[in-house]
Amino acid sequence: MILHFYIARRFLKALGIVTAVFIGILLPIDLAEQLRRIGPQQGLGPVFELALLNMPGKLYDLIPLFVLLGTIMLFLGLARTSELVVIRASGRSALHSAIAPVLVALVLGSLTLAVFNPIVAATEAEMDMRTARYLGAEERTVSVSSEGLWLRQGSEGEQTVIRAGGTNSDGTHLFDATFFQFDVDGAITARVSARQALLVEGAWQLSDARLWPMAGVANPQAAVEIRDTLTLSSTLTREQIRDSFGKPETVPIYELPGFIAQLNQAGFAALNHRVWLQMELSAPLMLAAMVLIGAGFTMRHTRFGKTGIMVLAAILLGFGVFFIRSFAQVLGESGQLPVALVAWTPPIAAMLMALGLLLHTEDG
Predict the structure, then answer these.
(1) Tens of pLDDT along 137-164?
(2) d(Cα 296, Cα 318) in Å, to the nearest integer?
(3) What local confidence, expressed as pLDDT, does residue 362 receive?
């Protein structure tokens, strides 16, 4: 047990060093990127603010790389001081020596999912909102609630709020839709309801529509107009509606199942969010796989030579697993593979492959 605690402490120290080095590298780069994005006229305060808000998300994406490099640093240090030789001489196998960092990786992955994920979601959402404010863009176009789907579009002369009971998969075909039109002062000017509304180039095409003029009318109900078809101008596009749901990363892991249920109720497939949820749940296994990959290539004694080649092989294999996982995520988001398959197969396969390598090279 003392040996496990010692190796775990060395592993955590290596992880801390790797993380600190990457923060020192990424922060200046992100400062330059935010300065280019919002322009120097905003001042350095907002630039630094956005860079700090963006840093948790960047670190969160790189956690598997940190674990891989921390594992390499750990076992290279143990091999250089001949501590691995002493451990083997005491009757402990190489696999036994890797138990502590694997358990640390699993615990770290679980804590990251439970604690760091909500922090990243909050900072990502806040960054998107502040960036939109600095750029003068609309903060949000689409909102989903238990009452249905809400959209907002606007121009210099008016703003329109749209509520729909249901929609198709990309939000361009609304059912039981109601349009509330407001002037620049925020006063309502008209209300339009329609059985269906279809988004075309620059307009909504409504069918079975009822129009209530509200501005300057004493009795809007008496002035209602019934039309088979009606066209309302629109500034929305299919891409704006799709992107306005926000990245799945901006939704905390605890709220993601409920958010997916609301999207499904509104008529959206929520495939990206379902894939992201499963990918997050499988993240601890991915970190454990990175530990085993790093251990499989770096537990050799340094006197055998070719240490640089083994380190390079471990990094390349780790990046290969990460690339395969990202590629599988794309296939899952496009609906070509089942969600559970793309989320859980890469880390499990990587763990089995690394275990086979470790047993073959270290335990015969």
Answers:
(1) 544 556 666 666 778 877 667 788 888 8
(2) 11
(3) 65
Say yes or no to pLDDT of 56 above 50: yes
pLDDT value of residue 4: 83
Give residue 245's pLDDT: 59
Contact 172, 199 (CB under 8 A): yes
pLDDT at 269: 67
Which residues on adjacent β-strands are paired with residue 199?
A: 204
Is there a contact between 53 and 123 (Cβ–Cβ < 8 Å)? yes
Using the structure block, give the residue that is written with the tokens 């015969």. Answer: 364
Residues 6+ apart with CB under 8 A from 71: 11, 14, 101, 290, 291, 293, 294, 295, 298
Residues β-bridged to residue 206: 197, 230
Task: State the residue for tokens 């209602």.
Answer: 224
Dihedral sign (CA 227, 231, 237, 240):
negative
**Residue 139: predicted pLDDT:** 47
SS3 of 223, please?
coil
User: Given the structure tokens 């496990």, which residue do they identify?
Assistant: 4
Instruction: Tell me how far CA of residue 245 lies from CA of 64, 82, 87, 119, 238, in angstroms.
Output: 27, 54, 53, 19, 12
CA-based torsion, 104, 105, 106, 110: positive or negative: positive
Tell me what the pLDDT averaged over the chain comes to: 83
Distance CA(275)–CA(333), nearest Å, equals 6
| Burial letters 319-341, b for 16+ CB under 10 A, else e | eebbeebeebbeebbeeebebee
Q: How far is the C-alpha of 333 from the C-alpha of 319, rounded, in Å? A: 21
Tell me the two tokens of residue 135: 């750029």
Report whether pLDDT(239) > 80.
no
Report the alpha-carbon distance of residue 103 to residue 108 in Å, rounded.
8
Identify the bridge partners of residue 182 per DSSP, sorted by sequence position: 159, 188
The residue length of the chain stands at 364
